[in-house]
């Protein structure tokens, strides 16, 4: 089987295991870096609005965007979800 085929099969097995509630075989991909400014801009939010909507400190957002700091791994994971599924995150965070 080709490497691509093996990768697809491995991914399908991981997805099935995850869907069954098994953590084994599931590996979260958390990127090493994200473009926080691009994520925020795509949502059409100011830094203050982005921070408030998703529970970040506005100074952290400023520092991430200006390259003074990188988000920690949990924040990068959350930012990835915001990037891909912002509506789901907003629904989940609504009281």
Number of helices: 6
* Number of separate strands: 0
Distance between the termini: 49 Å
Mean pLDDT, to the nearest integer, reads 88
Indicate the low-confidence ranges by residue numbers: none
- What is the domain tally? 2
Structural category: mainly alpha
Biggest sheet features = none
Percent of residues in beta strands?
under 5%
Can you write the helix and strand succession as a string? HHHHHH
CATH topology of the largest domain: 434 Repressor (Amino-terminal Domain)
Proportion of helical residues = 55-70%
Q: Looking at this structure, what is the CATH superfamily of the largest domain?
A: lambda repressor-like DNA-binding domains
What is the rounded Rg?
Answer: 16 Å
Approximate shape: elongated
CATH architecture of the largest domain: Orthogonal Bundle
* CATH class descriptor name of the largest domain: Mainly Alpha
Q: How would you sum up this structure, described in words?
A:
- There is one protein chain.
- The chain has 95 residues and is an all-alpha fold.
- It folds into two domains: 1-27; 36-93, lambda repressor-like DNA-binding domains (434 Repressor (Amino-terminal Domain), Orthogonal Bundle), CATH 1.10.260.40.
- It contains six helices and no strands.
- It has helices spanning 3-19, 36-43, 47-54, 58-65, 73-84, 86-93.
- Helix 3 (47-54) packs across helix 4 and helix 5 (73-84) packs across helix 6.
- The radius of gyration is 16 Å and the shape is elongated.
- The mean pLDDT is 88.
């Amino acid at each position: 089987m080709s490497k691509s085929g093996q990768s697809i099969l491995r991914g399908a097995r991981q997805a099935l295991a995850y869907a069954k509630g098994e953590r084994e075989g599931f590996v979260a991909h958390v990127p090493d870096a994200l473009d926080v400014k691009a994520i925020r801009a795509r949502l059409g939010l100011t830094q203050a609005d982005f921070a408030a909507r998703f529970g970040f400190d506005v100074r952290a957002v400023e520092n991430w965007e200006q390259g003074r700091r990188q988000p920690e791994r949990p924040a990068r994971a959350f930012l990835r979800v915001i990037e891909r599924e912002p509506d789901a995150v907003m629904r989940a965070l609504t009281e």
